[in-house]
Design goal:
By secondary structure, this protein is of the alpha+beta class. It folds into 2 domains: about 100 residues; about 220 residues, Phosphatase 2c, domain 1 (4-Layer Sandwich), CATH 3.60.40.10. It has 8 helices and 10 strands. It has a 5-stranded antiparallel sheet. Strands 2-3-4-5-8 form a 5-stranded antiparallel sheet, covered by helices on one side. A hairpin with a 4-residue loop joins strand 6 and strand 7. Helix 1 runs antiparallel to helix 2, helix 2 packs antiparallel against helix 3 and helix 4 runs antiparallel to helix 5. The radius of gyration is 33 Å and the shape is elongated. The N and C termini lie far apart (about 105 Å).
Length: about 325
């Protein structure tokens, strides 16, 4: 009896593997073969009734084992199929969300005499929390904005969409920069209680006078490259991020632009991109690239910065959303 039981175990592993890998008909055929081998190689029986009973018990045991394995495999395959369908539906929804998010972004740069403006955004996860826009304002002025919502993915993209709509609405109401920031701060803080915030640079350009009024709300310092002197000026934050505190007072600063000036606004996805050694791209490389290519078109400078960060990190996917905006003042250099 002990020998019979021990031999039975020799068939269990092959039968389980066969039930997992092979169709049901073939598996049950193998089950009958295993019962036949069990009877042929097993112990000798004292009576025919004992032999029949032992083989019947073996057949039932092997059949039950194979049937349960098939049931488990069927459930696993069904679950895998459900997961694949849900994944495909989720990917479709993310693609739709990415399409909707791209609709918030300008298709082309604004046509402003004396200025060349271009930008791009590369989300880390299909959709992201970065945002930029050009907003026509009264008296031939142009609103400029670049923003970075804390976090990535769909949640950040939804908050970005709300911020975009709020800024556009304030532009229609002819609000001052400080009023727009204060209202946006109240709305974002009311939605999240300070758990999510947004850094941004909001600017107002007067093309005729070349004056730029801007507020940097906890965002990365903007680069202003003076081509006439081949020098850089970094426009640091003038107040805290938007939505972090219930009240935000942020008075804009003003700067006069000159012919040949190149201004670069960017999110931390550019400067914090790392290579294999863990080194960051950093703002210094932005300055070096602009200094070497300040005579190029704005779109060319955007493309150069993006290509250089890809070369630096040796990959075209990033851990954070990446946005670049370049504003260039056209005309002969001021003497």
């Amino acid at each position: 009896m002990v020998k019979s039981i021990s031999l039975s175990y020799l068939y269990i592993l092959p039968l389980v593997v066969a039930a997992i890998l092979l169709p049901r008909r073939i598996t049950f055929t193998l089950t009958l073969i295993c019962v036949f081998l069990h009877d042929l190689l097993g112990r000798s029986y004292s009576a025919l009734q004992v032999r029949i009973a032992d083989n019947l018990i073996t057949l039932i045991s092997f059949g039950f084992l194979v049937a349960m394995t098939h049931k488990f495999v069927a459930q696993r395959n069904s679950l895998s199929g459900l997961i694949r369908r849900q994944r495909d539906e989720l990917l479709k929804e993310v693609d739709l969300a990415a399409h909707v998010q791209r609709s918030f972004l300008p298709i082309n740069g604004p046509a402003i005499p004396g200025f060349d403006i271009a930008a791009m955004m590369h989300p880390a996860r299909g959709v992201g929390g970065d945002y930029y826009d050009y907003i026509p304002l009264p008296n031939h002025k142009l609103g400029l904005i670049i923003a970075d919502v804390a976090g990535k993915g769909v949640a950040a993209a939804l908050l970005m969409a709300a911020a975009s709509a709020a800024v556009r609405m304030d532009a229609d109401d002819r609000r001052r920069i400080s009023e727009t920031i204060s209202r946006l701060n109240r709305e974002l803080h009311g939605l999240n209680g300070g758990s999510r915030f947004m850094t941004m640079i909001l600017g107002e350009l007067e093309p005729e006078s070349r004056l730029l009024r801007y507020a940097n709300c906890g965002h990365n310092p903007a680069l202003l490259f003076r081509a006439s002197k081949l020098q850089a000026r970094w426009l640091s934050a003038t107040c805290t991020p938007v939505g972090l505190f219930p009240i935000l007072q942020c008075e804009p600063e003003q700067i006069a632009l000159e012919s040949g000036d190149v201004m670069v606004w960017y999110t931390d996805g550019l400067t914090e991109a790392e290579n294999e050694a863990g080194e960051e791209f950093g703002p210094r490389k932005i300055f070096d690239i602009v200094r070497s290519n300040w005579g190029a078109r704005a779109q060319e400078i955007v493309d150069l910065l993006y290509q250089e960060v890809i070369n630096f990190s040796e990959r075209d996917t990033f851990d954070d959303d990446l946005t670049i905006m370049v504003l260039k003042v056209e005309g002969a250099l001021d003497q």
